[in-house]
Specification:
Layout: H1 16-29, H2 39-50, H3 63-66, H4 77-89, H5 95-106, H6 118-130, H7 138-149, H8 156-166, H9 172-188, H10 204-218, H11 230-247, H12 260-268
């Protein structure tokens, strides 16, 4: 069966989220740079393509570099690894490519198990799991122990990243951290649906990460029941997406530098 591709001119124009997603895809297709691939851009387009949006051959020039982990600049390895994990999952890269990238990431893990920030630690964990590692592999154990032991999580991005790193795990420490993180997000969501760094004026990046974190739990609503009923969780996500759609610029981007790939991923869902 031929797969229908979604374009800005062939979508449900009554759905502002679908319109915003299509515009963002069109914008990001112009941002792909084969000489210096951006991991966030590649990941967003890979996911969009898997969900039926027409990315065409836009990614083809960047894929050879994405598959060559040994050539990645150190500062970009986590983002590129995260993008490669998406490419492998959706048939755009081989499992051997991702295995090589995972080995590179394990060599860079800090002694405490982290990769610096909570966000980067989640992205590294996700890449390792996608490469075939199990929760009882030592590198993943170290990450999970570090996430559960973080003493101060007081910004929306940190809270959202912690929820993403917990994924669907359920143990006493994970449940406690998830409960406090969900309570934070519920209290911090503004009336117009967005989230700010500390409950203040909403930003695109904070809103996108909050949506991504809540969307993961939408697949397992029992894990969020301490704070959200299933219908409340869906409504919080929907409000956040409408905020992003309303904040989009006419060219398909968002004003905050680097936030467009994250906003698109949030609109597309898990």
């Amino acid at each position: 069966m031929t797969q229908l591709k979604k374009e800005a001119t062939a979508i449900d124009k009554a759905d502002p989220v679908a319109v915003a997603s299509a515009r963002a895809v069109d914008y990001l297709k112009k941002q792909v740079d084969a000489k210096k691939p951006n991991g966030e851009v590649i990941r967003a387009l890979v996911v969009a393509g898997a969900k039926g949006y027409d990315v065409g051959s836009t990614l083809d020039p960047a894929l050879p570099f994405l598959k060559a982990a040994a050539q990645w600049p150190k500062a970009d390895r986590i983002a590129l690894g995260h993008a490669l994990a998406a490419a492998e999952r959706h048939g755009r890269a081989a499992s051997t490519d991702l295995t090589a990238a995972a080995k590179l990431l394990t060599a860079e893990q800090q002694q405490d198990g982290s990769y610096g920030s909570i966000l980067d630690t989640w992205r590294a964990r996700h890449t390792l799991i996608e490469s075939g590692m199990q929760p009882d592999d030592v590198w993943v154990i170290l990450i999970d122990r570090w996430v559960r032991g973080v003493s101060q999580i007081d910004t929306t991005r940190e809270v959202a990243a912690a929820l993403l790193a917990l994924d669907h795990s359920s143990d006493v420490m994970a449940d406690n951290l998830r409960r406090s993180s969900l309570s934070y997000l519920r209290n911090a969501q503004s009336k117009d649906g967005g989230w700010g760094p500390k409950g203040d004026k909403p930003t695109v990046a904070d809103t996108a990460l909050a949506i991504l974190a809540l969307s993961v739990l939408d697949a397992e609503p029992r894990l969020a029941r301490s704070t959200y009923r299933p219908e409340e969780l869906k409504e919080a996500i929907a409000l956040g997406k409408r905020f992003l759609a309303s904040a989009q610029r006419p060219d398909g981007s968002w004003a905050e530098g680097g936030s467009t790939p994250w906003a698109l991923l949030a609109l597309l869902g898990p």
